[in-house]
Amino acid sequence: MILSSASVVAFGASLLVVSAAGSPARGSSLSGANIKRDAALDDWISREEPTSYAGILANIGEAGERSYRADRGLLLASPSTVDPDYFYTWTRDSALTFKALVDRFFVTKDGILQIHINDYIAAQARLQPVSNPSGTLLPDGSGLGEPKFQPNGTAFTGSWGRPQRDGPALRATALITYGKWLLSNGHRDAAANNVWPIVANDLAYVAQYWNETGFDLWEEVRGSSFFTSAAQHRALVEGSSFAASIGSSCAACDSQAPKILCFLQTYWNGEYIVSNTNIGTGNSPRSGKDVNSILTTLTTFDPLSPTCSDITYQPCSHKALANHKVVTDAFRSLYALNANISVDAGVAVGRYPEDVYYGGNPWYLATLAAAEQLYLAHAQITRHATLSITSVDIAFWKALDAANAAEGTFPASSQTFTALTSALKAYADSYVAVAQKYTPEPYGALAEQFERSTGAPLSAKDLTWSYAAFLTTIAARDGELPGSWGAANISSVPPETCVGGGVAGTYTAPPTNLTWPDVVNCPVIDDLHVTFNVLTRTVVGQDIFVVGNVPALGNWNVDGAVKLQAMRYREADFPLWFGGVELARGQRVEYKYIRKDGGAGNESSVVWEDGANRVVEVQVQGPGCRDAIAVGDQW
Fold it and tell me: Where are the chain's structural domains?
């Protein structure tokens, strides 16, 4: 039975860390005390965590170091502009990332992060009414299925796989999560007036179009996607509760969610989850083994689910664990990187075994997702204090520990429980270790893929989703778990025969002049991160520097000038050079760009730009705890 509007879950602060006894508890950890940590892996994680967080922030316009020309609150998929060009904002990628950032905010109470979240919500309010090739917001909501937009928030009109129906559901989930926090902290008006209008449109879209095909999260085939269906089901369940909490309702949520839940059961083929169905003719044949299904368990995870439910595909469920083995095993003999790795150790994981994009390689986010599901499963099993194994998932457990795995139910006091949960945590760590092995040092930048034979980073650089995947995986490892979405209230078994659905929705243009409560823990910031961006032509062997009248910019001494990085920005022979420095707030800084041959520091090799000195006022507008600004120049 779908959660009724009268049965509202107590929201709290939305991010719950659940104690082994089963009650919500702040600051506790689900990491077993008997789990031995790998010191080298722990050390890498401690270094990669700030790198990944900074990598996300660098891709958020308008002041992000790598997001030049992106509007405030819009998150770029990657700063890569050629081979491939990911210099766009995707609804799906942004929602997944900001869901992770909202969950992080609940732990850190970081005022700067809260401003980014507020900016994101305001940006989505601006995006929803933008007419695009998928359609419009009014009157039928069809435009909400558009997958990506230009970095300035205008429509992308090129050929693409559209519509993509996961974006509205994922965005609703991210916003609802923050809306719950607003409610629990006395900011009902912000939840009702800023968050709900955007969420209501997205829920209306899901309820109307869930039974129609769309492109999958890899944007390659049109059909029914397990990931999309699960995201849609969760959004409607959680959306109904959120609506009730602000004195509204979502009748379409209540009527359509059970139908989607029934449809979700059809993706299971008896051995694993077939991630894409109803794809029709004209597509390359696929086995259906796809990390899509592992990513889905991260969305369906509910820390308060009373059982390892197969119905909602909880990470610890028999079906989810069996599927994990089938999907990851599909890559064991596929990549040279995975040669000679035992069955109880993690491997590099790609999207699906038939993949040919960039030659078909492992992805950082896919490999990390394999770890994250296992951490979440460990958390659930530990909380339930019982491990159940059936014929469905016995192969998974035997691969981890053949000596102890057997069908049956094992209490936490048993040796079998202890041995298998320890093996499960070690197995999860081994997937993170794979990501560690192929992450370049010393900077820890995460691309989209790593090459299947050499492990070299490949495809889009500084991929936002890769960084977000690292953060959510490590949060799960540390027992910092996202809040409940209501899976515990779904107790009935779906009917054997599913019925179609879809209810025409009502859509309204959301307000764009949003007013937010004061941010929490707004720090006093003495220095701002100032990014200098300059479009200028160079030839091989030339570098661009910025020099100015303050020590951080060399005090006009070319030897102390700050070297910028090159990034090709759209025009093939007109690269963007960029770089950031910390400058004291309130300063009036004068600066110029210089060109050096071969990075030499002597005056004879230096070309200064003509004209008067450029000037930047080191100040931000809006809330005082913004910590970054950017300037854009052309030389």
Answer: 60-155+163-489, 527-634
What's the pLDDT score for residue 571? 54
Rg (CA), the chain: 25
Place of tokens 């200064």: 608
What global pTM score does this model have? 0.91
| Residue type at 202 in one-letter notation | D
Q: What is the pLDDT of residues 339-357, one digit of tens each?
A: 999 999 999 999 999 999 9
Token pair of 427, please? Answer: 């197995």
Task: Please give the pLDDT value at position 138.
Answer: 96
Amino acid in the structure at residue 170: L
Instruction: Report the pLDDT value the prediction gives residue 29, as an integer from 0 to 100.
Output: 30
Backbone angles phi, psi at 229, to 5 degrees: -60, -45
Beta-bridged to residue 634, according to DSSP, are 535
Q: How far apart are CA 411 and CA 391, in angstroms?
A: 18
- Reading the block at residue 406, the tokens are 């057997």
Low-confidence ranges of the chain (pLDDT < 70): 1-37, 281-284, 491-492, 568-574, 599-604, 621-624
Superfamily of domain 527-634: Immunoglobulins (2.60.40.10)
Asked if 41 contacts 47 with a C-beta cutoff of 8 angstroms, the reply is no
What order do you get walking across the sheet with 565-567 strand by strand?
A: 565-567, 576-584, 527-535, 628-634
DSSP SS3 for 380: helix
Question: DSSP letter string over 451-477?
Answer: -TTT--EESSSS-HHHHHHHHHHHHHH
- Distance, CA of 474 to CA of 456 (rounded, Å): 23
**List of E strands, 460-610:** 527-535, 542-548, 562-563, 565-567, 576-584, 588-597, 606-608
The residues pairing with 546 across neighbouring beta strands, listed in sequence order, are: 562, 593
Is there a shared CATH topology between the 60-155+163-489 domain and the 527-634 domain? no
Note the pLDDT tens digit of each residue in 529-575: 999 999 998 888 899 999 999 999 999 999 999 999 987 555 555 67
Strand partners, 581: 530
Q: Are strands 457-458 and 449-450 parallel, antiparallel or unpaired?
A: antiparallel
Pairing of strands 628-634, 527-535: parallel
Instruction: Note the pLDDT of residue 351.
Output: 98
Query: Which CATH architecture best describes the domain 60-155+163-489?
Result: Alpha/alpha barrel (1.50)
Measured distance between the N- and C-terminal CA atoms of the chain, rounded to whole angstroms: 63
Q: Which residues are catalytic?
A: 216, 219
pLDDT of residue 206: 98
CA distance 199 to 216: 22
Query: Are 625 and 112 a contacting pair, CB within 8 Å?
Result: yes
Binding residues for substrate, by number, are: 160
195 vs 178: CA distance, rounded Å: 8
